UniProtKB/TrEMBL annotation:
InterPro entries: Methyltransf_11, SAM-dependent_MTases_sf. GO terms for biological process: methylation. GO terms for molecular function: S-adenosylmethionine-dependent methyltransferase activity. Residues 30-116 form the Methyltransferase type domain. Keywords: Methyltransferase, Transferase, Ubiquinone. It comes from the Bacteria. This is Methylase involved in ubiquinone/menaquinone biosynthesis. Gene3D superfamilies: Vaccinia Virus protein VP39 (3.40.50.150).
Length: 275
C-alpha cells in the first residue's frame, strides 16, 4: 500500500548504492523527475551541487523536501554543457519522447559529463502485477469492521453498509483493472520493455555508450504490499531469488573522452537472464 515514507526509504537505500558511481564529490548534478526531492537532498548532503526538475502536476508536488524547478517534461530548462552528471531514478520509463529526452540530456552534459539512470526491471513489473491481489485483500481488510451491520436498521445504516461493501468490492476488483506503469506497451509487454536488454539497445540507439550496468539488489513492488514491515536486509536477500526491482546504468555520450577510453561492461545486446 502506497506510503511516501516507505518510498523515500527505498530511494535513500538506492542512493547509497548509487553514490560510488557519482564522482567527484562536488560535481554539478541535475536530477530529472525529482519527485519529493528526497534523493536530491541526500545528494546535496553528500557534497554535490544539485539542481532538480519535476513536472508541476507531479503526484509528489505536495510532499517536496527540496527546491525543485518545474518543467514541461520535454525541454530541460538549463543551458548547454551545464552539468557534470545527469541523474534519474525511475523516470525514463515515463517519458513519452525518449529520443528527445536523450538529446536534451546530451545537450546539458559537459563534454566530460555522464548520465546515471536507475530503472525498474522486468522482475519489478512481474511482481507488481502479482502482488496486486494480496494488496487488494489487505486494503479490503482495513475496512472489515465497517462491513458488519450495527444494531440500528435505519436508512442511514443501510446506506453506510452498502457503501462499505461497495468500497470493499472495488478494492477486490482493482487487480483485474491494472494498467501499464510507463508510457509504452501494457502490463504484459512491460515485462519485456523494462528488461535491461531493452534499455541497453535504447541507450545505444540514442547516442550513448554504456560504462556501468548492474542491478541495485533490492526487491520491492509498486504496490508496497508489506511496506516498512520488511527490512532492507530482507529485501536484499529476496532480490537474489526474485530479482532486483531496479537496474543502474552509467552512460557517456558516444564519442566523448570517457566513452572512448572505457570498455563497455556488458556488451551482450540481448539477454533474458533475470537480474
Amino acid at each position: 500500500m502506497f506510503c511516501v515514507e516507505h518510498l523515500n526509504a527505498l530511494r535513500l537505500a538506492e542512493i547509497e548504492k548509487t553514490l560510488p558511481y557519482l564522482r567527484p564529490v562536488g560535481a554539478r548534478v541535475l536530477e530529472l523527475g525529482a519527485g519529493t526531492g528526497q534523493q536530491a537532498l541526500e545528494l546535496e548532503r553528500h557534497g554535490f551541487s544539485v539542481e532538480a526538475i519535476e513536472l508541476s502536476d507531479s503526484n509528489y508536488a505536495e510532499d517536496r523536501l527540496f527546491n525543485i524547478t518545474d518543467y514541461d517534461g520535454r525541454h530541460i530548462p538549463f543551458a548547454d554543457a551545464s552539468f557534470d552528471i545527469v541523474f534519474s531514478s525511475n523516470v525514463l520509463e515515463h517519458v513519452p519522447d525518449l529520443a528527445g529526452m536523450h538529446a536534451e540530456i546530451r545537450r546539458v552534459l559537459k563534454p566530460t559529463g555522464y548520465a546515471v539512470h536507475i530503472l525498474p526491471t522486468h522482475a519489478w513489473r512481474f511482481w507488481t502485477t502479482v502482488s496486486a491481489f494480496p494488496t487488494a485483500f489487505m486494503y479490503a481488510a482495513t475496512i472489515r469492521g465497517q462491513l458488519v451491520p450495527r444494531l440500528s436498521r435505519n436508512v442511514a445504516e443501510i446506506r453506510r453498509l452498502l457503501g462499505a461493501w461497495y468500497r470493499a468490492g472495488l478494492y477486490l476488483l482493482a487487480p483485474f483493472g491494472q494498467r501499464r506503469h510507463g508510457e509504452r506497451g501494457n502490463i504484459i509487454s512491460e515485462t519485456w520493455l523494462f528488461h535491461p536488454s531493452w534499455w541497453r539497445r535504447n541507450f545505444r540507439a540514442n547516442g550513448f555508450d554504456i560504462i556501468e550496468d548492474e542491478p541495485l539488489g533490492l526487491f520491492y513492488t509498486g504496490h508496497m504490499t508489506f511496506g516498512m514491515r520488511w527490512s532492507l536486509e530482507r529485501r536484499a536477500r529476496l532480490a537474489r531469488v526474485l530479482g532486483s526491482a531496479t537496474h543502474l546504468f552509467e552512460l557517456k555520450a558516444s564519442g566523448s573522452p570517457k566513452a572512448q577510453a572505457t570498455a563497455v561492461v556488458n556488451p551482450v545486446e540481448v539477454s533474458h537472464a533475470p537480474v
